[in-house]
Write a structure and sequence with these properties.
Layout: E1 4-7, H1 11-24, E2 27-32, H2 40-44, E3 47-50, H3 63-72, E4 77-79, H4 89-97, E5 101-102, H5 107-114, H6 116-125, H7 141-151, E6 155-159, E7 169-171, H8 174-192, E8 197-201, E9 207-215, E10 221-233, E11 236-242, H9 249-266, E12 270-279, E13 284-291, H10 298-305, H11 309-317, E14 334-341, E15 343-344, E16 350-351, E17 354-355, E18 358-360, E19 367-371, E20 378-379, E21 386-394, H12 397-410, E22 412-414, H13 420-428, H14 430-433, H15 441-445
Parallel strand pairs: 1-2, 1-4, 2-3, 4-5
Antiparallel strand pairs: 6-7, 6-8, 9-10, 9-12, 10-11, 11-14, 12-13, 14-21, 15-16, 17-20, 18-22, 19-21
Helix pairs in contact: 4-5, 6-9, 7-8, 12-13
Bound molecules: adenosine-5'-diphosphate.
């Protein structure tokens, strides 16, 4: 086992990894930008190094500085967290070439799955259902028009290097397809330096269901069941839960098995998530992408299985075999996560930087709050707007909903606008309680007001 790990991240996930390491008797080296000087996670790490100024491109994304910190800190492994360099195959390769283990999959597996068109090929060979769409990248406008008419409108233009909903456009007809293609390619080029786009049938009013995977270096692959992440705005998740409330046990088994097949086919190791969309009209599920990292919503799966995913990641990276077989992973109860972000739903979900002047966090039975903030903490302009994740776990979904309602009612955050008022409305909504929702539910029910 590793004696020392560098955490190449900040905020909530840095704290989460440091806490796991402490319980495992592993020392931690933290890194921080000038904007994160004085952050809470730094005080819990054994050592901490400043790696540059506030903007992530000058600090958390600087591979050379992270490697220098790892060498000075004398660590055997690096945990990338999520975001920043977590899915950067080059970073994984550099770490290992410096004899520092990267706590994640191999760079080859990451490369294959990071490219969505390549990932679809793997899914196809693993007999995992795909959304009807173009065979590969779209070469030109004429091909796009031909392909879209074959699939049938509406179609979705997606970036092969995509993430965070960037480079995605819905096209209703040939005209909007042509303008959408240009816009999507330009956005993808800017965000990912890769303008490649492809087409998919746009599934109307779908649900988003994903499967948590763990795979070791000895060929063992298990799933930790599914999470339903249908509640999104701007293609970004806001609420996640397990089990998926509208799926039968047999359908859940089937989607989880599909995810395991895909991961085996890709030679993927460590923790990962296989994402699907569910067509509610036909009850069919389709693969959309693999996230080759730990995800924000991982606590949902931890609570329903009792398995610590961060510790599992570290053990797998150190070469240990998974200590459980699939049959031993028992799904228990209902877990729901709500993301508390410093953003203003009344102003188009724009980030809302500022200082938290008052903070009272809910607790009690069934409540977990994973967060790096405290009263007096200033949310700066440089990074994502997440304040923390409120997660509840109760024996049934109804009890989990009641628990979440009372936890949200207890929550006090002053000084910054947050998603809490919207979350309170969501959890009071009858259609949500019956889970009669789709990925457009928030936008339809609470239409964004102009900023
Ligand atoms: P990104 O990597 O940019 O987040 P994804 O492929 O994961 O993109 O898709 C993000 C979200 O967009 C999904 O959760 C789903 O809500 C929606 N989406 C993706 N593909 C489709 C599709 N073919 N039809 C309808 N909605 C889709």
């Amino acid at each position: 086992m590793f004696q020392r790990i560098l955490v190449a991240n900040r905020g909530e996930i840095a704290l989460r990894v440091i806490r796991a390491c402490k319980e495992m008797g592993i020392e931690t080296v933290a890194v921080f930008s000038e904007a994160d000087r004085g952050a809470h996670y730094l005080s819990l790490a054994d050592e901490a190094y400043c790696i540059g100024p506030g903007p992530a491109t000058d600090s958390y994304l600087m591979i050379n500085r992270l490697i220098s910190a790892a060498e000075i800190g004398n660590v055997q492994a690096i945990h990338p967290g999520y975001g920043f360099l977590a899915e950067n195959a080059h970073f994984a390769e550099v770490c290992r070439s410096c004899n520092i283990e990267f706590i994640g999959p191999t760079h080859q597996a990451m490369q294959k799955l990071g490219d969505k068109v390549a990932a679809k090929q793997i899914a196809r060979s693993a007999k995992v259902p795909l959304v009807p769409g173009s065979a590969g990248l779209i070469a030109n406008e004429a091909e796009a028009v031909r392909c879209a008419n074959q699939i049938g409108y509406p179609v979705l233009i997606k970036a092969t290097a995509g993430g965070g909903g960037k480079g995605m456009r819905v096209a209703m007809n040939d005209v909007s397809l042509k303008t959408g293609l240009k816009a999507a390619a330009a956005e993808a080029e800017k965000a990912f330096k890769n303008a490649g786009v492809y087409l998919e049938k746009y599934i109307e009013r779908p649900r988003h269901v994903e499967v948590q995977i763990l795979a070791d270096l000895h060929g063992n692959v298990v799933h930790l069941w599914e999470r339903d992440c249908t509640l999104q705005r701007r293609h970004q998740k806001l609420v996640e839960e397990s089990p998926a409330p509208t799926m039968s046990k047999a359908a859940r088994e089937e989607i989880c098995q599909a995810a395991v097949r895909l991961v085996k086919q890709a030679g993927y190791t460590n923790a990962g998530t296989v994402e699907f969309i569910l067509d509610q009209a036909t009850n069919k599920f389709y693969f959309i992408e693999v996230n080759a990292r730990i995800q924000v919503e991982h606590p949902v799966s931890e609570l329903v299985t009792g398995i610590d995913l961060i510790k599992s990641q570290i053990r797998v990276a150190a070469g240990e075999a998974l200590p459980f077989k699939q049959k031993q992973i028992v799904h228990s109860g209902s877990a729901i996560e709500a993301r508390i972000n410093a953003e203003d739903p009344a102003r188009g979900f724009r980030g809302s930087p500022g200082t938290i002047t008052k903070l009272r966090v809910p607790g009690g039975p069934g409540v977990r709050f994973d967060s790096h903030v405290y009263q007096g903490y200033t949310i700066g302009p440089y990074y994502d707007s997440m304040i923390g994740k409120l997660i509840v776990h109760r024996p049934t979904r109804d009890e989990a909903l009641s628990c979440m309602r009372r936890a949200l009612a207890e929550f006090v955050i002053e000084g910054v606008a947050t998603t809490i008022p919207l979350l309170r409305e969501i959890f009071a909504n009858a259609a949500f309680a019956r889970s009669e929702i789709d990925t457009t539910f928030i936008e339809r029910t609470w239409p964004p007001t102009a900023p």
